[in-house]
């Protein structure tokens, strides 16, 4: 009982120390992948809550959205016997399938290197969160594979580095929008908002956007993975029916 | 209009897919081929993952061959006995092909294997067809009728002979089994029916009469590609029903238009066009292998 009182007291004393807090909201917390899904735009907005007068130092807001992390293999082609063949491969422990980082300024200004490492905010840090499996001694070699991963996924709009994309007005209200491309994978998209002053994180807010296939898409996907045999037979049935249908219809037309 | 494909997990323009299905349908109607050899590379070009492209093409081929075999059944030009023997070989080949496919997929070489298969087979078949049809045109100019020849030799010396009534043959079951197996392997790796290999093999190697060749080939292709589709669905989860449906709709309509166009062209012209088309696809894939790619790296998600 005494311990609990002490703890409560500490908590009450601690609260004013966090002079600035993030209060945030999302335009949507669910994204439904339907048959005509062509990407989606998510608006992330909020305010900085203060109980003390405005402190000194530059205030920045950093917003990250990360898709589910999965191990990937990056392969490099080399010319062998005149043709280009996959030769070397590097397995990367975990890379987010989607990653966007938006900030009020370039990341190097908004966040110190240490804080970036700690919170894994920038794209290379987010990928290396788990670290490439094996080949640790050939660090520079692995680097080029990680760079390639970032380059390829950036080109597909899956990795987005958006310095200056967060609008901050009156050091209080902020907003940004993140474009989710059409080729999304399912999962919980972890959304983090960091409030930084002088490059140090002073408060963070975290929530998740649920990206789910719905309706027919979901049904087909689940069937293909849970009941592959039935799904295969269904595919064949559809094909046979289409073949028979085509033959019958055109016999009628020509008949 | 974009549609999101549930298995491929990419969003593709539906009209583009309808167009691909339609063009391939027109060509298959014109030339009497399944069109699988065109669909798979075209799907690569629009960004469908190779594994999904191969598996879905196999499913698509089931539909077009079924439609074709119905027409041949009405004309009674299907040799069921020969078809069954080819089929037994084909199923064994398909199982082996899937095993090879999965082994190389694990090593990251499946793209290379599929592309090499395409270059080799399309190159050889295209060149043979071109030479043959040019010769036929020259012959018809000179006014001589095309001569038919029946091969008699080592194939007739093999054991396990069997009578095939519809084809009017009495030959060993070994060559049809081998032909079937070879086509089965190709079906699994390339996602094609293999008619373009099967038809010449039946005419020149087995000596079957031309009128039963196409129907019999289609009959066994249905089962081999059907089996391949099932195996891909069960082992790789890579058959995309959405993709197959859109391609089917385009293909069915295209095939009928193609048949009408084909009726207005001369047989030699049709074959030269097909040969050039096959060689063009072959050339495009070969260039991909020979030229330095713009991006040397590629990403494979773990299953």
TrEMBL record, chain A:
Transmembrane segments: 229-253
Keywords tagged on the record: Membrane, Signal, Transmembrane, Transmembrane helix
Entry superkingdom: Bacteria
Signal peptide range in chain numbering: 1-19
Pfam families: Alph_Pro_TM
The keyword Transmembrane belongs to this UniProt entry's keyword annotation: yes
InterPro entries reported in the protein's UniProt record: CHP02186-rel_TM
Name recorded for this polypeptide: Uncharacterized protein (TIGR02186 family)
Source species of the chain: Rhodovulum euryhalinum
Organism ancestry: Bacteria, Pseudomonadati, Pseudomonadota, Alphaproteobacteria, Rhodobacterales
UniProtKB/TrEMBL annotation, chain B:
Source organism superkingdom: Bacteria
Annotated membrane topology: Multi-pass membrane protein
Cited InterPro entries: TM_pro_TauE-like, TSUP/Inactive_protease-like
Matches recorded under Pfam families: TauE
TM spans (from-to): 12-39, 85-106, 112-132, 177-205, 212-235, 241-258
Any one Gene Ontology cellular component term annotated for this protein: plasma membrane
Subcellular location: Cell membrane; Membrane
Keyword annotations of the record: Cell membrane, Membrane, Transmembrane, Transmembrane helix
Record bears the keyword Repeat: no
Family: Belongs to the 4-toluene sulfonate uptake permease (TSUP) (TC 2.A.102) family.
Protein name (Swiss-Prot/TrEMBL): Probable membrane transporter protein
Species this protein is from: Rhodovulum euryhalinum
